[in-house]
Hints:
The protein is mainly β. It has a domain at 275-391. The protein is built from three helices and 38 strands. Mean pLDDT is 80; it is low at 1-24, 343-355, 365-402 and 404-420.
Amino acid sequence: xxxxxSALCLSGLLLAVWPTTWAxxxxxxxxxxxxxxxxxxxxxxxxxxxxxxxxxGTCIGNLEIDTSGLQxxxxxxxxxxxxxxxxxxAAIRVVGPIELVLRDLEIRDGYFGVRVENSGAFVQLxxxxxxxNSVGLMAERGxxxxxxxxxxxDHEELGILATSGSEVRLxxxxxxxxxxxxxxxxxxxxxxxxxxxxxxxxxxxxxxxQLATAxxxxxxxxxxxxxxxxxxxxxxxxxxxxxxxxxxxxxxSSAVFVADTSEVSIGSGATVWGSVTAWSxxxxxxxxxxxxxxxxxxxxxxxxxxxxxxxxxxxCTTGSDALCAGAAASATDCPSSRNDCEAPGVSEPHRQNxxxxxxxxxLDQQRHDEAHPARVxxxxxxxxxHHQRAGRYHHVGEAVPELIGxxxxxxxxxxxRGQR
Length: 420
């Protein structure tokens, strides 16, 4: 009797697999340290109808999965060790609108640790350790990637990259010691929730750009190089419910920078240590505490209300303004017609005199700037530190080679890998 063949795409090969029963335990175990081979044994297990497949040892080689409903689970732990041979390979590449669970796995040594490529794909990482890739995780084209109790660390470029309308959710997970922690780009959606932690990333903790959105709830940020949170290109970031950015002794130079008509909202019990700066952006603070200065530059807007506290005061420059109500903060150079922020004990005549003096100083400075134009962020022009940051972080994407260009595409389509 002839046996029928079925096929599963794995590691870039079309493998014929026989529909035979799996010899051994009720749930199949592939032990790569005892001669097991994912390229052979995984297709056989799938063809035999198994959906939960246990792995043990170190399995070397890039894995491509296009079958829905699978769970790959370490027993008790296993390693998927990719091979970065050029052309942006992934240790685990997920193709098609499939559902996949990865549990108790170490994923390492690819260009990507896990790459999820297609709309309709839903991939969960549970208690996984993703490290030592160039980019830990990438979700694109409307796919959904969720992490629970997982760790993403020690990547040369990025811990996590979400792009082109994809969604990434972190729950009780840790992102640390990457060049940049997380980037959400091009209408991507990012949620960082429930005692997650973003720390010790070299440049930026979380970057949100080009119409992307981020919800940050009950999350701790610490020691993230230059910035904890950077929002630009018409993006939106909400920081809520017991989230804490920094600490009194945190060396991170700036907590939040928002630019290019983006908005950052800090509220509902959040605490931020360090400066918050808007450059043609908007900042809203309510029921929250900022242990630092709020600086509004280049026609930015600030809203400080509902028992918010801004220890370092609010400074407005170059057409910016702050609207305050029921907040503990002092303000400098914010138009008095819209400003109720005032330091305790300052009399009204004294405040008006201060405001007139500052208006004259600002007018003098504007005339000087018009006569001596300078590039934003040029230290040689003697500008303030936040001016320098504006110039630096307006092009922060250039610090992520091969991944993000200034308003550019990310890696092109899947078929264009390796053609950059």
